[in-house]
Structures are given as structure tokens and as C-alpha cells.
TrEMBL record:
Ranges for domain PLAT: 1-105
Protein name from the UniProt record: LOXH1 protein
Entries under PROSITE patterns matching the protein: PLAT
InterPro entries from the UniProt entry: Inner_ear_hair_cell_LOXHD (IPR052970), PLAT/LH2_dom (IPR001024), PLAT/LH2_dom_sf (IPR036392)
Lineage of origin: Eukaryota, Metazoa, Chordata, Craniata, Vertebrata
Species: Oceanites oceanicus
Domain of life from the UniProt record: Eukaryota
Pfam families according to UniProt: PLAT
Gene3D superfamilies, alphabetized: Catalase core domain
Length: 172
């Protein structure tokens, strides 16, 4: 029951604008959004530049409309870049947090222009002395916090109790 028969919509956002909401209609498979299946869609759009986020969801209609979405990969035919958007969550009113739409940010560093060194130089400020780092573990759905005084809180609390922190994602 991880697939859906509901109508699925996506909005793609890039540095030059967005596509607006588009229904994903024609998969290369005879039946779309089945459990364990990879569906491929063609979405026509103006050149959005480098992509940074998507919003994907469904209308919640139909029997068994809940959907477990693993990830979305967008292949840009102009730049030949792949943009990965990891989800690993339910889009279901009766599962997880009850949301049927998710905002996902790009997670594949190869999609960013420039070298990995440029990417690190843009992100290294998060690891400076005095900053609290909070990692979210998708498997346990809990937080692990690394405090400036070298304390580690790995109890897996599901709520952010540390105020201003830099949230990182752990792959489980």
C-alpha cells in the first residue's frame, strides 16, 4: 500500500523562476505510482537555471491515496545535470505527519555549479566553534545534537529543543 491512485502534482523551482503546479500525467509505465516502481515523466518548461527545490504532492482523492515517496530525480537535458530530491516519507493524511505535499530541496552536490571546494567554502561556516549542530535521523525520526561544549545528545528526541541550531540530515 505504498503507491497511490491520486492525481500527483509537482512544482519545480530554479534560479530563474518556477514551473507552477503541473500534474504528472503520462508515465512510461502502463500504471503509474505503484509500490517499488520508478516512473518517468516529461515535463516541458522554460530554462529555470540551476534547480534548488520542488514541491510535490497529490490531491488526496481515491481509495488508498497514501503514497510513500522515496525520491525524485530531475534530469536537465540542456545542462545534462541530475538533481536529486530525497523524501523517504509518506504523503498520506493517515500516516507520518499527515501531509499530502512535501517541499524538498536539492540534495545532490553534483547539481551545484562549480567544484566541491566551492560548495564546502559556502557551507563550512556551520562548523565553526560555538555552533550547535543538530542532525535528524530519518530512520529513528529523532535528533542528535552536537553542542559547542563537546556534549552529544543522542537520545533521539523528536522535537527541536535547542533553539537556534543548524539542521543537517543523516542518511539512514
Amino acid at each position: 500500500n505504498a503507491g497511490t491512485e491520486a492525481d500527483v502534482y509537482i512544482s519545480v523551482y530554479g534560479e530563474r523562476g518556477d514551473t507552477g503546479s503541473r500534474q504528472l500525467l503520462r508515465s512510461q509505465k502502463p500504471k503509474k505510482f505503484l509500490r517499488g516502481q520508478t516512473d518517468i515523466f516529461a515535463v516541458e518548461a522554460v530554462n529555470l537555471g540551476h534547480l534548488y527545490k520542488i514541491v510535490i504532492g497529490h490531491n488526496g482523492l481515491g481509495a488508498g491515496n497514501g503514497w510513500f515517496l522515496d525520491k525524485v530525480v530531475i534530469k536537465d537535458p540542456i545542462t545534462d545535470l541530475d538533481y536529486s530530491f530525497l523524501c523517504h516519507r509518506w504523503l498520506d493524511q493517515g500516516q507520518d505527519d499527515g501531509n499530502i505535499a512535501r517541499e524538498l530541496t536539492v540534495t545532490d552536490a553534483s547539481a551545484f555549479p562549480g567544484s566541491k571546494e566551492k560548495l564546502w567554502s559556502a557551507e563550512k561556516w556551520k562548523f565553526q566553534e560555538g555552533n550547535t549542530l543538530q542532525f535528524y535521523n530519518r530512520l529513528t525520526r529523532g535528533f542528535i545534537c552536537l553542542s559547542p561544549d563537546s556534549r552529544v545528545d543522542a537520545l533521539g528526541d523528536k522535537k527541536n529543543k535547542y533553539g537556534k541550531v543548524f539542521l543537517m540530515w543523516m542518511c539512514a
